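Supplementary Methods S3. Input chains for the assembly prediction are listed below.
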Amino acid sequence: MFGSGGVRGVGPRWAGDHVPPDSNEPLEVIMMSALSTRSHPGDVVVRCRDLTKHFRYHEQQPGLAGTVRALLRRRHRTRVAVEGLDLDLAPGEVCGLLGRNGAGKTTTIKMLCGLIQPTAGELSVLGERPSRRSFTFLRQISVIFGQKSMLWWDLPAYDSLLLHRRMYDLSRSEFDLAVGQLSELLELGDLLSIPVRRLSLGQRMRCELALALLHSPRLLFADEPTIGLDVLGKRVIRDFLARVNVELGTSIVLTSHDMDDVAALCPRVVLIDHGTKRYDGDLTGLARSVRPAKQMMVTFTAEPQLPDPLPPGVTVVGRPAPDVLQLDIDREWLAEVLTAVSGWGPVVDLEVTDADLDEVMVSVFDGFPEQRSPGESRSA
Ligand SMILES: Nc1ncnc2c1ncn2[C@@H]1O[C@H](COP(=O)(O)OP(=O)(O)OP(=O)(O)O)[C@@H](O)[C@H]1O
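Predicted structure tokens for the full assembly:
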């Protein structure tokens, strides 16, 4: 909990909760009141039906001749980025949007946060139409793009925070409280006072998160927030997002190509392919439907004596060394196989795991047809 790390009593009360910073209420009471103003049973924070986005753009061949030709005769193309997406998100839910490059994840996020307007479909986010971009709506959401900075490049991040304080109309005490807590949670130290262009990627991302969370949004869109970070940098961001979700009840829509992010943060995943939803459910369910077998790595004292035929439910998928076997095992035969393996030779090590999530995603994407161009249509 935010409170247990040295910020007890002020943890979840970020700017916007309008609780005086010197309140002595117990943390749990504060949290309950913070959460009760944020979510109502039966609410949905996101609801979209048949959400569709087609981009219309004109084609241009490279080179001067191409530029001239494009000026004289414009050929328009339409690219289908998102097609017929239905999605409901409950308060406090964390949902991972998965899909290969170009699947439509960022386009979906941009529509949900009001940056671009859908071509068709119904969309309601926190009870509002995002493209209206009302202050009430913008005050309750936040977005962080791993590949774009919201911070002023030449100024210390603190100056960007001050600007956001004005934009979100936060009082000085709300601002100081939020900055203090975020600095502690994100281990910012003196980073806020260094010009952003001098920060490393990991340091900058922590400052980006502080900026995104300054006004305590109810809904956070995080588009690849850990991209390019090392394992420790990723962990800081995952832990932070998990705490924001659990302790503040903030709903999160996350995209990431890092399956460790997804496994750590997203009980629910929505798989998008060519702009169309292909799966909506829990990650384990997806993994098991695609790669149902358990993986077993067994190390023997010497080369094992394998029976012929092998027992039912076992496939040898690799032999990294003469005394090591890599097996795929049907779940229902697991107990029998565990017993049988010890009869093949003295076992010194044995590891049973589910399929690696990256492998699962490779299988999922392999099952989809290649990125097609029929998603595009031409008009002169
Ligand atoms: N402004 C635009 N004009 C034309 N096409 C666009 C535009 N923005 C996105 N697209 C196209 O829409 C499709 C979906 O793009 P999007 O950025 O949503 O994919 P993504 O799933 O976020 O991919 P990635 O994982 O690579 O970030 C792609 O084919 C992309 O080229």
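The longest strand covers residues 75-89. Residues 55, 57, 79, 81, 99, 101-107 surround adenosine-5'-triphosphate (CB under 6 Å).
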